[in-house]
Amino acid sequence: MDFMIAIADGFIGMFQAGAEVFMGFMTGIIPLLVTLITAVNALTKMIGEEKINRFLQKITKYALLRYTVVPLIAVFFFTNPMCYTVGRFMPEKYKPAFYDSAVSFVHPITGLFPHANSAELFIWLGVATGYATAGGSQAQLGLMFLLTGLLVILMRGLVTERISAYMFKKQGYERILNEK
């Protein structure tokens, strides 16, 4: 009989723990996330989507900016999954590499800007909580994630651009490589 009571207590205890976590989110991270999303949307409206779009078209001409600044702006302003649409400002030959860079950046940005990819937030919170418990600073960890992410997306973008060029050429799509 004691065994059955222990199972019942454990079963309901699991839901009580879940409810506590849920209430923590409702009073902590959820209001923060809503505030950040509202602020970024307001900033986008104040600057104007057209101005942001024109700026992006200009800087995609340079590989360093194409695979660092453009994904950063795309993920920050348009968030996941809309950030991938920024690839429309690039010639076809750069689109696979841009996508690789952007998709690789949606997690590293979450530490400092959780609005950018709220689906990754729970992963980030798990890592950051463990790091803070061990005595580290969550802000420092978020910054290191961001900087490391920028380096990684640059490398991925450059490598994917070369692989794409090779594949376009191999499959007879030289016209794509000659686009400006």
From TrEMBL:
Keywords: Membrane, Transmembrane, Transmembrane helix. The chain crosses the membrane at residues 21-43, 64-87, 141-159. InterPro entries: PTS_IID_sorb (IPR004699). PROSITE patterns: PTS_EIIC_TYPE_5. One of its GO terms (biological process) is phosphoenolpyruvate-dependent sugar phosphotransferase system. Pfam families: EII-GUT (PF03608). One of its GO terms (cellular component) is membrane. Coiled coil: none annotated. This is PTS system glucitol/sorbitol-specific IIC component.
